[in-house]
């Protein structure tokens, strides 16, 4: 598990290899990731948007920006957490993701960025 805390918000990530798939006459490697967002600050916060940088071993980089996470913009009171699962397809059996969440602090009404630490993907057969 990879974890990081930014401004009292803890991000924890677990990854899993889901299998190989053919898409557009090309093999793809499917991975899932489970992210838990925990609010250790004294203020209520809301996740508004996300930014991802997705890398594979073939030097392909995909940038993904979007609202919320899996269709939600969770509000976290102090001590609360939100967990969700998502996934990605890579062109190689090894890769990584990193990014950030844009959040708002309801007490100060200020927006802030929470870092999502780099987490790695690897198919079990790809490593010795």
Automatic annotation (TrEMBL):
Q: Where is the ApaG domain?
A: 3-128
Q: Any transmembrane segments, and where?
A: none
Which Pfam families did the record assign? Answer: DUF525
InterPro entries, A to Z: ApaG_domain (IPR007474), ApaG_sf (IPR036767)
Matching entries from SUPFAM superfamilies are given as: ApaG-like (SSF110069)
> Superkingdom of this entry's organism?
Bacteria
Q: What is this protein called?
A: Co2+/Mg2+ efflux protein ApaG
Q: Which organism is it from?
A: Flavobacterium sediminilitoris
Q: What is the lineage of its organism?
A: Bacteria, Pseudomonadati, Bacteroidota, Flavobacteriia, Flavobacteriales
């Amino acid at each position: 598990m990879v974890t990081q805390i930014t401004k009292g918000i803890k991000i924890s990530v677990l990854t899993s290899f889901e299998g190989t798939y053919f898409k557009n006459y090309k093999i793809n490697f499917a991975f899932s990731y489970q992210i838990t967002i925990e609010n250790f600050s004294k203020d209520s916060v809301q996740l508004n948007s996300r930014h991802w940088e997705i890398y594979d071993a073939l030097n392909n980089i995909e940038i993904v920006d979007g609202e919320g996470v899996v269709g939600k913009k969770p509000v976290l009171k102090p001590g609360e957490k939100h967990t969700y699962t998502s996934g990605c397809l890579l062109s190689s059996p090894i890769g990584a993701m990193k990014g950030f969440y844009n959040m708002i602090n309801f007490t100060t009404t200020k927006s802030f960025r929470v870092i999502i630490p780099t987490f790695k993907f690897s198919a079990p057969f790809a490593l010795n």
